[in-house]
Amino acid sequence: MRYGMAIDTAKCVGCSDCVVACQTENNVPIGYCRDWIVENVNGSYPNVEIELRSERCNHCENSPCVRCCPTGASHIIDGGIVMVTHNECIGCGACIQSCPYDARYSHPDGYVDKCTFCHHRLEKGQNTACVEVCPTRCLHFGDLDDPYSDVSKALKNRTWKVLAPEAGTKPQLFFLT
Amino acid sequence: MKEELFISGRDIPNIDPFLNIWHWEIPVYLYLGGLSAGIMFFAGLFTILDKEKEMETTVKWAPFLVPVALVLGLFALFLDLKHQLFFWRLYTTIRIESPMSWGAWTLMFITPLSMVWAAVYIKELIPGWNWKINIVDQFEEFVKKNMKPLAWAMMGLAIVLGVYTGILLSAFNARPLWNTSILGPLFLVSGLSTGLAAIIWMSKSHFERKVLTKIDIALICVELFLIIHLFMGFLAGSAVSIEAAELFLGGPFTTTFWGGVVILGLIIPAILETLELAGYKVPVWIPSFLVLLGGLLFRFIMVEAGQITRFLY
Ligand code: SF4
Ligand code: SF4
Fold first, then answer.
1. Model ipTM value
2. Under CATH, which number does the domain B5-312 receive?
3. DSSP assignment of B97-162, as one string?
4. Residue-wise pLDDT tens digits, B185-205
5. What's this model's pTM, rounded to 2 decimal places?
6. Cβ partners under 8 Å of residue A62, min gap 6
7. Tell me: the pLDDT tens digits for B238-258?
8. For the domain A3-176, what is the CATH code?
9. Distances in whole angstroms, Cα of residue B176 to Cα of each of A77, B58, B246, B302
């Protein structure tokens, strides 16, 4: 079991619904976010390319944030999801420094917070909030080890990339190009 | 044109547009750690060499600064924590992979040890000092008989502590400026040099100052050599490393780093110390003060600049 997500950059229109859905679902404090949309513009008119990416924690297989955490608050659970136990976190900020994707933030209550792949929803058999609301259905989530899962099927016939592979973190977010 | 922006809006405090999650607390913590490591290293070294008489300040008086510096340093680290009520969690596990963890544990050992060291010499510092508790007197006797092993332990732990102040940063792959193995030795040497500067400033003995000044000049040369190596490594590295180096080669940190740290904090004190050895009269506090200030500035710059560097994608 290895959770992962595929994001179709060709279909995403950058509406930010996933961002709002996440903020609502996870009670993210105002001014913060666990997922966000990047617009990448390359070239200039008329030879211009735009890529839209819905980004969040990559739930890296080789996660530097878990390695550098002095208390074990950052840890990996079944399915490869990287989690933070709030009442073990001392808020030292080491994991924030260690993340090449700036996916973590310091919650106003002190602990560090980030995307959990909506773990509490997965437990109930539901999909993540962002996948659920995406109007263009450009987000695909599921078990990478299962060839029939939504994410595996999405990755099958498409080219994809991961972000900053040179950071060596083995991210589990795949951007369909 | 290549442009990247958050169209969903993202302006998280201390993270956007540039990471700035560590403020003054961490550089101060690293500085005080390095300074303590320096003093303890030389106190241990000259005890092992049986030079307690000739090097009185090094062995006996300067180590009184160490417990104070370490406790202040730990306090700075504590201030940096954002979830302070849970700080004890640091001491419920040991995580070897996390420098923050084994550093906290090293401090846990080294702080009491430095207090013991200071306690041994307190009767010489304050004549008439009396512990008034039998057991403490017995313990003092015991420690006095075992000064050599204690000195070895101090020296070893001082090196661990000094290197740790660099490794704490260099372990972060995500920050290209920090992610170089030279940072460990560089911070160690810089820490030793600031420790020496403090001792030289305190010392009244001409002989002692002369010995320490010679060592300090050598350390400064090693430090300059390591700094050059650091930049050679960056410039021969990947795009992110080159970008990190550019912050110091024309970027916003150029003047403060080369002017403040390298020239004022290393080269000028080294010249002044050489002149002093050659017999010219130089007020002893000037080179010491410059080295101490340069070391502090160095850590501030490294922590701040490092957070700006990142992976491009
Ligand atoms: S994206 Fe960042 S926070 Fe998420 S697992 Fe990777 S390193 Fe950790
Ligand atoms: S801030 Fe919390 S989760 Fe992050 S490294 Fe420190 S203790 Fe671990």
1. 0.92
2. 1.20.1630.10
3. T-HHHHHHHHHHHHHHHHHHHHHHHHHHHSTT-----HHHHHHHHHHHHTHHHHHHHHHHHHHHHH
4. 999 999 999 999 999 999 999
5. 0.95
6. A168, A169, A170
7. 999 999 999 999 999 999 999
8. 3.30.70.20
9. 29, 37, 12, 11
Question: What's the A4 CA to ligand 1 centre distance in angstroms?
Answer: 13
Pocket-testing residue among A65, A66, A71, ligand 2, by greatest number of atoms within 8 A of Cβ: A71
Contact yes or no for A158/A164 (Cβ under 8 A): no
Q: In sequence order, what are the beta bridge partners of A36?
A: A55
Q: Is B36 helix (H, G, I), strand (E, B) or coil?
A: helix
Question: Is A80 within 8 Å of A3 (Cβ atoms)?
Answer: yes
Chain A residues 28-47 within an 8 A CB cutoff of chain B: 31-33, 35-44
B12's tokens: 């998280």
Q: Does B128 touch chain A (CB under 8 A)?
A: no
Q: List CB contacts of B129: < 8 A, sequence separation 6 or more.
A: B122, B123
* B205's tokens: 């003995």
Mutate to test the interface with B, among A96, A98, A113 (most CBs of B within 10 A): A96
Residue of B nearest to A13 (CA): B7
Rounded Cα–Cα distance for residues B17 and A54 (Å) = 18
**Alpha helix (H) ranges present in chain B?**
25-48, 56, 65-80, 99-125, 134-145, 147-170, 183-202, 206-235, 239-246, 254, 268-277, 285-308
The pLDDT score that the predictor gives to residue B129 is 87
For residue B270, the CA-to-ligand 1 centroid distance in Å is 44
Contact B123, B141 (CB under 8 A): no
Judge whether B312 and B240 are in contact, CB under 8 Å. yes
Instruction: Round to whole Å and give the CA distance between B136 and B110.
Output: 19
Q: Where are the domains of chain A?
A: 3-176
Contacts of A91 in chain B (CB under 8 A): 81-84, 86
Contact: A168, B5; criterion CB under 8 Å: no
B148: CB partners within 8 A, 6+ apart: B47, B48
